[in-house]
Every structure is written in C-alpha cells, then in structure tokens.
Amino acid sequence: MDGLERSKWILRDASVFKSVEALRAAQAEHGASLGLVRPKEINRIYCKKRPDSDRKEWEEHRAEALSQKELYVDAETETKDLAFMPVQYRACFRCDDAACHTEHDVSILDWGIYALSRRQFAARGAALAERDVISKIEEMMDASKRQPYFFLGNTKPHPQSFMAVGLYYPPCSDGHSKKKGPEAATLKLPGFD
Ligand SMILES: [Zn+2]
Fold this sequence. Notes:
38% of the residues lie in helices and 25% in strands. By secondary structure, the chain is of the alpha+beta class. The chain has one domain. The strands form two sheets. A four-stranded mixed β-sheet has the order 1-2-6-7. Helix 5 (111-124) packs antiparallel against helix 6. The termini are close together. The site of zinc ion (ZN) has 7 residues, from helix 2 and strand 4.
C-alpha cells in the first residue's frame, strides 16, 4: 500500500470532521471521542512548562491513551516506560469551517513527538530539545508540503475537551510531496504503518 492508498484507508476508517466544533457536536450527540480535523491554519506551535502537579494528569492521560492503544500505540512501544515529561507541546489552530469562531489551543500527545522529545532532552538538554521538537512539528505539519491533520481525542473526565493524540500528515496529492525523509519514517503516526 503506498502512502496515498494508506491515507485514503485511514481517512475512510477514522471519521474526518470539518472542525473541532463539529467533533464537539458529534461528541454531544452520540459520544464521538476521536476524529481527524484538518486545520485551515496553524498559528503557533509552542512549549509549555508543566508543574510537577501535572504528573497525575499525565498519568491519567497515559492510562486513557493506553486504553485505546489499538488505535495509536505501536506494538513495540514500551508503554510501562512512558515517563512524565516536564514540558507539553501545544498547537494553536483554526478550522476550515464557517462554524469555527475561535482559535483552538490543544496539547499534543503524539507518541512520535513524545519519543523524539525524550531523545532530544537526553542528548541536547531542555532548551535545545524544545526548539528542535517545535521545529520538527512545524515541518511535519507544514501545509505547503503536506496535508496536516490533527487526530483529536478526548478523555472521559472531559468529554468536550480534545487533545491531539496524533499528528497525521500525508503527502500532498498534487505530486508536490517531498520524498520520504528520515523524520517521516520515525515520526509516523504509530499504529498506521
Ligand atoms: Zn474550530
């Protein structure tokens, strides 16, 4: 299956919503808890320091994510080693939908980003790691080169609040896609390759 075929398969299988607003409406109506949203524009990727009191929240998110692991954790992930990270990466974006009236600011809980962040923190220290990870996310989600989607998921305690449980960025279908670089190989959405 080539990249384009795989994209079609994923996009058929997972529900694509026009906007976060539409996903929230589907959540309220029939309990939708996962959906792909293609942003109209990503305004900012940034890093936020997490107080240690967030550790509990992280562990809850981790438990939640693991309960849906068939969707986005690859078989080799050593889930028991998922440690609390002192920073959280976030994205601010608008949806491509007239119903979108506000910028969304979501946390990114993507396993590829998590793994990259841990590696970079260990190898280069906090400041350089943060810069590297942010520029990697910006590159992956660059709409001039790819078709970026946020794979949004909620948690049981906060059903109307969505976070990015994955980043999905198939190549542009117009033939301008870049060849698959090392980042594409290592930062794929886990579980879909
Ligand atoms: Zn919106």
